[in-house]
Amino acid sequence: MSENTYLNDIHEIRVDENNPLFDKTGLLYKEFPSDYRQIRYFTLLIVQSAPLEIKEINLLEQQISEVIKNAVKHGNHSDPARKVRVWYSFDSTHAHLIVQDEGEGFRDLEVWNAFNRKRLEILAEQDFEKLADYVSFRTQKSDDNDGGNALFAALEYWNGGFFFNNKRNAVAMLKKFPQKKHAIA
Amino acid sequence: MELKIRKSGDNYIIDVNGEMDLYNSYKLKELVMKMLEKKVEHFIINLENVDYIDSSGIGALIYICSTIKKMNFRLIITNIHGSVKKVIELTKLMGYFPITNSIEEAILQMED
């Protein structure tokens, strides 16, 4: 990948509560207790309503699981009394989700954006020695099971937008799936 | 997730079978750390039978890769495919990890 591709590609996590992706009209809804052991099960309950035409369903499941994990673990501190609320809709063209926790909100958002910008600059320079310090975003609260890379992938995957609300405890996201091109006879 | 170790010359091949997710990725990390304690220096991690990886799995690979690099030992990750490859591409780590397409290629690279 060329240097320019990385630099042109710099995405940021944004706060935009008025973004249309926060419109819940017509979306399905589920809520779960913040049980860390059941994150993948909760994810499957949501993904099972996705149509079979969606290719790479494994990848969709993985990306949804990451957002739910963030809500359960970092938002609600795996407190089963706190709920994770998910609004969602799928069809062959898109996946749209809103995931909300009952936590304090993503306080390190600006720090994360600065870290990611530096990471992308280093990737553009192809400096893999220096990149070693930027492969994983960690805070004082991170533990050994935190990969520290989920949001890097999320920003790339959710190509229709990835926005936090003002309190930063809810995130809305959209994936647009590529459509088959029909040849004109 | 099931881990099997086999030996080819000086190389220790770890065959990973199953899903590298938030519940079990630590097992691979622990295994590699134990092997390092036993003075193993050449690692090939075979992901041929891994169809699912999440950020914890990627985090485990990052930890293993950086630890082995710091010790000046050798690591190659091989047979990455499907959504596992996609997730690594999304995190832009394809250039960071030492990757080959097959175990044979990994063994050849180890000999260089």
Give a quick rundown of the structure:
The complex is a heterodimer of chains A (185) and B (112). With 185 residues, chain A is an alpha+beta fold.
Please describe what this structure looks like.
The complex is a heterodimer of chains A (185) and B (112). With 185 residues, chain A is of the alpha+beta class. Helix content of chain A is 34%, strand content 18%. Chain A contains 6 helices and 6 strands, in the order H-E-E-H-H-E-E-H-H-H-E-E. Chain A has helices spanning 3-8, 39-47, 57-75, 109-125, 128-131, 150-157; strands spanning 14-15, 28-33, 83-90, 94-100, 161-164, 170-176. Chain A has a 6-stranded mixed beta sheet, covered by helices on one side. In chain A, helix 2 packs across helix 3. The mean pLDDT of chain A is 91. Chain B has 112 residues and is α/β, with parallel strands linked by helices. In chain B, strands 1-2-3-4-5 form a 5-stranded mixed beta sheet. The interface between A and B is medium-sized, with 32 and 29 residues.
CATH topology of chain A: Heat Shock Protein 90
Helix content of chain A: 25-40%
Major β-sheet of chain B, in short? 5 strands, mixed
Number of extended strands of chain A: 6
Count of DSSP strands of chain B = 5
Radius of gyration of chain B: 13 Å
Radius of gyration of chain A: 17 Å
CATH architecture of chain B: 2-Layer Sandwich
